[in-house]
Amino acid sequence: xxxxxxxxxxxxxxxxxxxxxxxxxxxxxxxxxxxxxxxxxxxxxxxxxxxxxxxxxxxxxxxxxxxxxxxxxxxxxxxxxxxxxxxxxxxxxxxxxxxxxxxxxxxxxxxxxxxxxxxxxxxxxxxxxxxxxxxxxxxxxxxxxxxxxxxxxxxxxxxxxxxxxxxxxxxxxxxxxxxxxxxxxxxxxxxxxxxxxxxxxxxxxxxx
Length: 208
Ligand SMILES: C[S@@+](CC[C@H](N)C(=O)[O-])C[C@H]1O[C@@H](n2cnc3c(N)ncnc32)[C@H](O)[C@@H]1O
Description:
Layout: H1 2-12, H2 36-45, E1 54-57, H3 63-72, E2 76-80, H4 83-99, E3 107-111, E4 125-128, H5 134-151, E5 155-160, H6 164-173, E6 177-183, E7 193-199, H7 201-207
Parallel strand pairs: 1-2, 1-4, 2-3, 4-5
Antiparallel strand pairs: 5-7, 6-7
Helix pairs in contact: 5-6
The site of S-adenosylmethionine has 25 residues, from helix 3 and strand 2.
């Protein structure tokens, strides 16, 4: 798997391997990239289209952002709180752009707290690989729901290696429904999967 990740990085002219822990005790989780093999499996079964716009909450070194941009040429916003990690992501952006200049969709890295990110009207896909504790996830989800209701748009939340607290919050405290489960082939760890949750406030309105 590590070999595959390195090879894929070379193809995209980026460096996204390795782990970075926070030095102090925080509600924020460490930097670690989603395996490329997992992303390959997900996007064989789940497609994005040109109207989509994705936010990666806790972008790490940007692997998911670059991978999706390269596959689908859609606008990506990647929010990251760790300054060292963000610097690496920005360095990666220079490498990536040097060979992907023909893909005109923007990729934007933002320094800051995911929970303070202002969801734009066009953002409709939201990616999480366990960036932080459930309490922060709840705040971010509430911001997504507020935007979906205000604009009247369908939104998807994509969870990789989903934490029980995340699943519980979506199932018990929101109107999101689980629409897709993508298992990563050959993985012994049952948590190596993606769950995709969808909310469409327009459907709820019609049902009332
Ligand atoms: C497990 S990594 C995921 C990286 C990337 N999304 C991927 O899947 O390849 C989670 C990242 O979230 C960042 N993070 C943690 N808390 C955050 C917060 N409140 N706002 C923004 N980023 C945060 C961490 O620094 C870390 O780099």
